[in-house]
Amino acid sequence: MKRLVSLLFVFAALSVQAQSIKLEFKPEKGVEYPVSLEINQVMTLIVPGMGNVPSQTDQIIRAVVTLAEEVEQGYLMEARLTQMTIKSQSQGQSQVFDSESEDIVGQAIKSMMANSMQMIISRQGEVLEQMPVEDTVFTQADSILATQYARRRREQTMQQIKQLFSQNTIKSVVQAGLTKFPDREMAIPSVWTDEEPSEELGAIVTMQQRLTEVSGNRLTITAKSVIMPDPNAKKSEAAQRMEGISGNGEATSVIDTQSGWVIESNGTQSLRGELVVEQAGQVQSIDLTMEVKTKITGK
Asked: Structure pTM?
């Protein structure tokens, strides 16, 4: 009987151990970590005298991320974009930037796909530092545009391409494959909260994440976010900018327990705020709403 009781305590201890886990981002040398980020965004401007003016943007951005070397802060990773497709529609007009297209802009964008961008990612899955994107990486794209475009049009298009390949874009697609984990053992289920500023939105994003299930080498995390205007955000000097953005969102993600890389994730966001337009010394603020759907796959 005493032996049976001892065994029960052992099994109970093993059961408790199995219900806790420490999650980390753990890339392996020589392994490619693909990520595909699909975003559908519907924005509605509420214009006085005109009513609601909707616009829609669909994005597909794909990348492959590899480990260059392990460093003190975590990992030096290299990210190479493999597809960039952005389609915008508003008031009967459309604009397309597509690396899969055979037109001159598509060829220029595709020439960028050979370039790798480096960043340092912590073991908790946070992008700590990005190496700057040098202007020289755009040389080939500019040469391709020069074969058909006059100087002014070429310069305008190059500015748009540089925006597509900005540090924020590259960081966003890599972050899509990451989850920011707490630096501790977690029970199953477990809840943690992160708060960080969003430069793009000029807002503070508070996210509560819940580890709900671990099955084999997969774990499921649900997340709810609250977005509020950041009073300390650096004010954009752009002629058109979004201000006072607030709202909420939710997502469900499946993560690989061995690497910490996303397998799949689906989320939504509902946002509201203002579009501020400055022109000829005049400033106009237009109310806006945004509905955003995201789909992420990492396989």
From this structure: 0.88
